[in-house]
Write a structure and sequence with these properties.
about 70 residues; alpha+beta; Dodecin subunit-like; three-stranded antiparallel sheet; elongated
Amino acid sequence: MSVAKVIEITSSSKTSVEDAVKSGLKKTAETVKNIQGAWVNEIKVVTNGAGDIAEWRINLRITFVVD
């Protein structure tokens, strides 16, 4: 029998949603082992005064197996 746990994190990137996901997973993997997958829960865009995208922010639910 295995037990899985889900944690929720927030990550951001000035480049893209994909980069925000990758950096969030990479940072989480520094302290969490056995990551099995993730869901992108929410996407937010921060804009500058001209309406250009300044930053992508995401909310991730990360699943990992507990030893």
